[in-house]
Design goal:
127 residues
Length: 127
């Protein structure tokens, strides 16, 4: 039987792994945006490999392409926080529902969006 300390340690390791995964994905998305959409580059419309659905949704949640092209540290700091929080939640949900591919990710993201809309609607009704 595992001890309480052992269970807590495993939980901390899991949270740390989530943080690292989200942080790495943020850096990859930031690099992807700058390599493919920087203003000083030629137009690459139609030739850019798409982001994974969870990363794309997290980028939109964090403010979209314009924010990721920004060079202002404060703007990027806020975007990173929002990206990572959304990414961790979406990726956790993806794993919990047995997601294996892009289609599963898109289906799960649609469920997250539906829940967010329902939650915001219920908050509006209570105010």
């Amino acid at each position: 039987m595992p001890t309480v300390a052992h269970i807590r340690a495993r939980s901390l390791v899991g949270k740390l792994e989530e943080e690292i995964r989200a942080d790495r994905m943020y850096e990859k998305v930031l690099q992807w945006v700058r390599l493919n959409y920087a203003p000083d580059l030629p137009d690459k419309t139609g030739t850019v490999e798409p982001l994974p659905p969870i990363s794309e949704a997290a980028m939109k949640h964090a403010g979209g392409m314009e924010v990721f092209l920004s060079l202002e540290p404060d703007t990027l700091s806020i975007a990173k926080h929002r990206f990572c929080e959304f990414y961790k939640e979406a990726y956790r949900t993806f794993l919990e529902h047995g997601g294996k591919n892009r289609d599963d990710a898109k289906r799960i993201l649609e469920g997250i969006r539906t829940k967010q809309i329902a939650d915001s609607f219920s908050l509006e009704k209570t105010n």
